[in-house]
Write a structure and sequence with these properties.
It is a single chain. The N terminus is likely disordered. It is built from twelve helices and ten strands. The protein has two domains: 153 residues, 3-Layer(aba) Sandwich (Rossmann fold); 112 residues, Rossmann fold (3-Layer(aba) Sandwich). By secondary structure, it is α/β, with parallel strands linked by helices. Helix 9 crosses helix 10. A six-stranded parallel sheet has the order 4-3-1-2-9-10, sandwiched between helices. Helices cover 49% and strands 17% of the residues.
Length: 272
């Protein structure tokens, strides 16, 4: 194996999101692939993406993709559901490395998990309105019935740290009513913030409904892709984790440590 090939194998995984939510994907990657180096970019200056036009989101996606490619990543993971819903084609055409996204990973895991073929999907209004999960699920199994629910308040509640607050519990009960009444057996957590609510959601939906954590599904898909392409890092040393944002590094660090479940190293700011 040449030195260049070794360098490629040891290159980092690139993960990007519109803000802090994609750190749940990073956390799952750390647990599933403990020897892989990771570079994360959160576009904290321009979040939220859900209220922006497709053209604007695609422009942002191009800028971030080019930054991570210049950083020498061996694979790109689009952790932002909104970006995955509207800009994945643009990102894939630009990228010289494999591109994975949370929507395809979550859809695949949901189809594998359901036996009744009744799947619920919860996400931000932008993600739900895009029908991206429905298209991805039906692309794998057109016989599945899908019941979607936008949960606009979950993201601010999670970022506030109200993971088991009475307000969050009441909000979740209202959001989940029209989904769980459909006798679903699987529910996709279609936003990278939502895994932090998993204990509460599990309690509310009961044990008969499988919760598909898109972050965990993404980590599994990344592991399979790296293995299939012979890109797994063979070194068994402590990995290097790098975190970049476009603004507000201290706020990202304080909220991000809750998402990551560990202390964050220095967060660097990228200026376009």
């Amino acid at each position: 194996m040449s030195d260049e090939e070794k360098s490629d194998i040891q290159s980092p995984i690139g993960v990007f999101d519109s803000g802090v939510g994609g750190l749940t994907v990073v956390r799952a990657l750390m647990e599933r692939l403990p020897f892989e180096n990771i570079i994360y970019f959160g576009d904290t200056a321009r979040v939220p993406y859900g209220v922006k036009s497709v053209e604007t989101i695609c422009r942002f996606a191009i800028e971030i993709t080019e930054f991570l490619l210049r950083s020498g990543v061996k694979i790109l993971i689009v952790a932002c559901n909104t970006m995955a819903a509207v800009a994945i084609d643009v990102i894939s055409k630009l990228s010289s490395v494999p591109v994975l996204n949370v929507i395809e990973a979550g859809a695949s895991a949901a189809v594998c998990a359901t036996s009744k073929k009744y799947i619920g999907v919860i996400g931000t209004p932008a993600t739900i309105n895009s029908n991206a999960y429905a298209r991805a699920i039906h692309g794998l199994d057109p016989t599945v019935r899908i019941y979607s629910q936008a949960c606009a308040l979950f993201v601010p509640l999670v970022e506030e740290g109200w993971l088991d607050h009475p307000v969050t519990r009441l909000t979740a009960m209202e959001y989940l009513k029209p989904v769980i009444c459909r006798e679903i057996d699987t529910m996709v957590l279609g936003c990278t913030h939502y895994p932090l609510l998993k204990p509460l959601l599990r309690e509310l939906v009961g044990g008969d409904i499988s919760l598909v954590d898109s972050a965990e599904a993404m980590a599994e898909r990344a592991a399979r892709t790296l293995e299939q392409m012979s890109l797994l890092n063979p070194r068994r040393t402590n990995p290097v984790y790098s975190f970049y944002v476009s603004d507000l590094p201290l706020r990202f660090q304080s909220i991000g440590e809750r998402f990551l479940g560990r202390a964050l190293p220095d967060v660097r700011v990228v200026r376009w």
